[in-house]
Amino acid sequence: MPKKSDKKIIFERVKDMPPLAVSLYTMDYNKTGSWRNVRPVINYDKCINCMICWKFCPEPAIDAEKFEEDGKEKYRPAINYEYCKGCGICWTECPVEGAIYTEEEAE
Ligand code: SF4
Ligand code: SF4
Questions:
Q1: How many CA atoms lie within 13 A of 84 on its CB side?
Q2: What are the pLDDT digits (tens) for 76-102?
Q3: Whose CA is nearest to atom 1 of ligand 2?
Q4: pTM score, two decimals?
Q5: Where does residue 85 fall: left (phi above 0), alpha (psi -120 to 50 degrees), or beta otherwise?
Q6: What are the Cα distances from residue 68, in Å, to 65, 72, 73, 89?
Q7: Which of 1, 14, 53, 89 is deepest in the core (most CB within 10 A)?
Q8: Which CATH number does the domain 29-104 belong to among 3.40.50.10860, 1.10.10.10, 3.40.50.300, 3.30.70.20?
Q9: In the predicted model, is pLDDT for residue 18 greater than 80?
């Protein structure tokens, strides 16, 4: 576990921060994947790319991934397992049955 003193500081003072709830530190030491016991998996055959999971994820764990379909550039969610903590918000909020399923983490 990294020590707080090892963290890299982005903002020295709260008044330098943008008007958003962001950490004082970079995300380098905030990886959550090591203690997750269940992981979400996206089934792209069912996903409708509504990006609701991206909007509700409380970690920087869902990226908008560019892909091409019918000659058009589109975006779909891609889970970054280094930051996903397995909280379940994405699969709870997803409006499509089976578009996000879960897998247990191996020991
Ligand atoms: S399980 Fe939680 S942290 Fe992981 S991608 Fe879903 S909403 Fe984000
Ligand atoms: S909420 Fe569900 S259907 Fe919408 S983009 Fe995420 S996985 Fe796909």
A1: 22
A2: 999 999 999 999 999 999 999 999 999
A3: 94
A4: 0.76
A5: alpha
A6: 10, 5, 5, 27
A7: 53
A8: 3.30.70.20
A9: no
Q: Band of the pLDDT at 32, cuts 50, 70, 90?
A: confident
Distance CA 41, CA 98 (A): 10
Ligand number nearest CA of 94 is 2
Q: Which atom of ligand 2 is nearest to the CA of 51?
A: 5
